[in-house]
Amino acid sequence: MRQAGRYLPEYRAIRAQHDFMTMCKTPELSSEVTVQPIDIIKTDAAILFSDILVIPEAMGMHLDVIESKGPVFDVPIRSVEQIENLQLEGFIERLDYVMQAVKMTKEKLNNRVPLIGFSGSPWTLAAYMVEGKGSKNFDIIKGFVYNEPAAAHKLLQILADSVVEYLNAKIRAGCDAVQIFDTWASILSPPDFEEYSLQYIRYICENLETNGAPVIVFAKGVSSYKNLAELKCDVLGVDWSRNIGDVRTEIGGAKGLQGNLDPTILFAPKEKIRAETERILRSYGTGAGHVFNLGHGITPQTPVENTQYFVECVKELSKQYHAEAED
Amino acid sequence: MRQAGRYLPEYRAIRAQHDFMTMCKTPELSSEVTVQPIDIIKTDAAILFSDILVIPEAMGMHLDVIESKGPVFDVPIRSVEQIENLQLEGFIERLDYVMQAVKMTKEKLNNRVPLIGFSGSPWTLAAYMVEGKGSKNFDIIKGFVYNEPAAAHKLLQILADSVVEYLNAKIRAGCDAVQIFDTWASILSPPDFEEYSLQYIRYICENLETNGAPVIVFAKGVSSYKNLAELKCDVLGVDWSRNIGDVRTEIGGAKGLQGNLDPTILFAPKEKIRAETERILRSYGTGAGHVFNLGHGITPQTPVENTQYFVECVKELSKQYHAEAED
Question: Are β-strands B215-219 and B177-182 bridged in parallel, bridged antiparallel, or unpaired?
Fold first, then answer.
């Protein structure tokens, strides 16, 4: 999950001088904030600082990121013509700043920890591109896919191919693992999730050239992991609404699981942070395959001290549970 | 789920002349908009037009409902002192306008269809009272319950007792069924859901004087229905993220199930509306216990014609599945 961010004074100091997209597009800055949590929070992996919407931005959609409002496309996709006019030619070259950031981050990390790169899923990217911004009910994107399924599938396939190309480039640039975020998985009914989201994630997983880099799929809020367990990927993300042990049982150990502390637990007193960390470790149980993580991104007001304490707790308490994995 | 609303021109005509809270507080107006969907959409039950936040408002919290922003408390709860200063004495008398609306609605319905009354769950009410408004991460309410658990439980118990009194009064006034909405159930991890929400819903269910009125519990987005199935209630609401047939299997027929069409399907072409209705009926299967409904409230831009068609589809297609229930 996102590690760099406004909860860190060191991040805010840089952010105060540059807007969000400038930070994404300047490898010196994005690599610097990517490495900050490794030094300050002491996590076991780094996550490249970026935004899922750099892909549509590189296809010619103008993007504003206003911190209080979230990302906004001033001209959202509403027609087949707009889909046909997306600037696919050369989009990956226009994302070369991401690849430069990967290389620069790898240098700064100097093999201390692995680097994870990420992409939004086609469905989550399409939801932003069609809605134009975050939404409460997502009635615009859903109205679009229900009323213009051919156009919707055209857009989703374009995005699926683009995500393959983008993640392959990130792996070639040096990412040690890649993650696909389907933030808006849970707004679809089970058959619509398969039709508009999961089939495109499956396509991506089957077409990546990973060179051995693990692939993590995080479909936030899904109620069933059975179909996800059949993907050609290595790890599934689990948000905090499920007991991670129940998910392990449900998928019969087919994948590693990443999760699943509620990020707002980091606002709790230390005893609660420790108790919840222990509860999750106990829920997963012993043996390999558990990547301890937050169940979603860290929030801006999170106390740094609590985040540091959380990482200490994971490192200390996981030993007895993960012993088998470390052999 | 909410039936009256901005998608109906007849509602907008009244809303144009009165602010939202005036409509809630004026029995002539709230009963009129409650009955509108029965005449226009032809649903089998009416849901009293109201807002879950009338309870904290009757306890002295000033509430503004701004249509584009949602409800806002200008002085949210942040301390034990504020909880102690809630005006509990006489709060139910200050909600007499709701009971008058129930009586007036019953007269207007003239036994055509039953009337459902509702309340927010203690957790969902507390989330609004402490956050002050809707939230993305709910870090204020969660920080509050984690750091001041005694104060949080005091507030939740006050709300649980108040909801019992409120729903009992609604039943006495004439409601034929009552529903408890836990809109924010899914933001809690499983053990926190039990501690901060479910135990208070259980308390309400065990302390209601229903006089035979069915009790419906809707905990939106929960991943497991096992614990809910043990509540002293009659029906569980299911949002559209689950297959309703899987939930039926999970709870072993312990309760009726209400749901679960994605409300945005009403933006789809008629064939899709019909197909989804049929899919849900087939998923639940034959026999008694299915209350067909949307998986959440209807959204403002929903086409009226599609909503009417949806109700027609349910009435037509459910016959073969619900035959046993009608014997």
Answer: parallel
> CATH number of the domain at B9-171, please?
3.20.20.210
Domain boundaries, chain B: 9-171
Average pLDDT, chain B: 95
Q: What is the mean pLDDT of residues A287-307?
A: 93
Q: What is the pTM of this model?
A: 0.94
Establish whether A182 is a catalytic residue. no
Task: Reply yes or no on whether A6 is catalytic.
Answer: yes
Alpha-carbon distance of A52 to A120, in angstroms, equals 5
* Cross-chain CB nearest to B137 (options A142, A143, A299): A299
ipTM: 0.90
As a whole number of angstroms, the distance between CA B267 and CA A307 comes to 43
Low pLDDT (below 50) residues in chain B: 325-327
Helix ranges restricted to H, chain B: 9-15, 20-25, 27-40, 54-58, 80-84, 91-94, 96-109, 122-131, 139-147, 149-173, 190-193, 199-207, 244-251, 270-284, 304-326
Those of residues 259-278 in B touching chain A at CB distance below 8 A are 260, 262-265, 267-269, 272, 276
Residue B147: which of A191, A268, A299 has the nearest Cβ? A268
Residue-wise pLDDT tens digits, A199-213 = 999 999 999 999 999
Q: CATH top-level class for A9-237?
A: alpha beta
Does the distance separating the beta carbons of A240 and B221 come in below 8 Å? no
